[in-house]
Write a structure and sequence with these properties.
By secondary structure, the chain is α+β, with helices and mostly antiparallel strands. The chain is built from nine helices and eight strands. The strands form two sheets. Strands 1, 2, 3, 4, 5 and 6 form a six-stranded mixed sheet that branches. Strands 7-8 form a two-stranded antiparallel sheet. The chain binds iron/sulfur cluster (SF4) and FE2/S2 (inorganic) cluster. It is an enzyme of class 1 (oxidoreductase).
């Protein structure tokens, strides 16, 4: 009987970029924007953090036995339980729903819980070095493009998966990125429905929910965008975001677009105005790396392009 590659037990080395921050001295704040508390683009930079947090950085290997169908998160949990309780990573739902476990796997931003060993494992050899730099514009990455043929490999080939914290953000510890800058930017663009009219009430005094129903066409315009889990994978892929001080970022723009596309929302003009600054839609360079790895299948670059056009039209109307 042959065992399918997906069921095989493999010996895999997790090569982890580790980081322990240096404790800050009381009364001294390290990092932050080189522009201090005032952003050159207007507004405050009080929430900005440096990507150059000081501390100890090193690479550590952990070897685990794993089924090819296990997730990378499963392997990290086994390392934490059985080898090194000091290893730090973040997760919550374990099912691709919460977005808390975005990291770089073999240099690619993605979620730990949905990443399968069979899709990411590679021979531990320089020939299989990670790609770096810009990724080509195009369709979302198909995992079959990335996976190696486990059946064709010599069973003694050493296998490795490389893990690092999500790029584009300061690292807090090991695989935990500080995503507060992204969350601040999302909050700034008010990611909630601002209904223009008064709530319609029925004769019995209750809110008439039927007044707020959406027909399938209206729903289609924002349904996919409402699946965004604010994981930051698109921001970690974006070469312009890198720290978020000069660009509000794809995740914040996607969540703003979700409400721009909602016929019930009455704050469209304010939403477009909020994106008119130099760190708004004008900062997007349409590289479209953001579209490559979204775990929710959102074509982030295309959605951003549609919003950029709306912002440009609103700007032209103001002149
Ligand atoms: S658009 Fe996709 S990749 Fe970006 S934050 Fe939302 S779910 Fe994550
Ligand atoms: S743990 Fe929630 S998305 Fe991965």
């Amino acid at each position: 009987m042959t065992i399918a590659a997906t069921d095989r037990v493999l010996s895999v080395t997790l090569r982890i970029a580790r980081f322990t921050p240096k404790p800050e001295r009381a009364g001294r704040r390290r990092g932050g924007s080189p522009f201090g508390s005032k952003s050159p683009f207007g507004g405050s930079n009080a929430g900005a953090r440096s990507n150059r947090v000081r501390g100890r950085r090193w690479t550590q290997d952990y070897t685990v036995s794993a089924h090819a169908s296990d997730s990378v998160l499963d392997c990290l949990l086994s390392v934490k339980r059985e080898q090194d309780p000091s290893l730090a990573f973040r997760y919550s739902c374990g099912h691709g729903m919460c977005g808390s476990d975005a990291v770089a796997i073999n240099g690619t931003p993605t979620l730990l819980c949905t990443a399968k060993i069979r899709d990411w494992v590679k021979p531990d050899s320089p020939e299989f070095a990670n790609e770096d730099g810009f990724r080509p514009t195009g369709e979302p990455l198909d995992s079959s493009d990335r996976a190696i043929d486990l059946d064709a490999l010599d069973p003694d080939t050493p296998l490795v998966i490389e893990l690092a914290a999500l790029p584009g953000f300061p690292t807090r510890r090991d695989l935990i990125a500080d995503i507060d800058p992204m969350l601040d930017q999302i909050r700034r663009l008010k990611p909630y429905l601002q209904a223009s009219g008064e709530l319609k009430t029925a004769p019995n005094g209750k809110v008439d929910a039927f007044e707020y129903l959406q027909n399938p066409e209206q729903l289609k315009r924002y349904e996919l965008l409402s699946n965004c889990i604010a994981c930051g994978v698109c921001e970690g892929s974006c070469p312009v975001y890198a720290g978020g001080e000069a660009f509000v970022g794809p995740a914040a723009m996607i969540l703003s677009s979700r409400f721009l596309n909602d016929s019930r929302d009455g704050a469209g003009r304010e939403r477009l105005e909020a994106l008119m600054g130099p760190d708004g839609s004008a900062a997007c360079q349409s590289v479209r790396a953001c579209s490559m790895h979204c775990p929710k299948g959102i074509d982030v670059g295309e959605e951003l392009w549609q919003t950029i056009q709306k912002v440009d039209a609103a700007k032209a109307a103001l002149q």
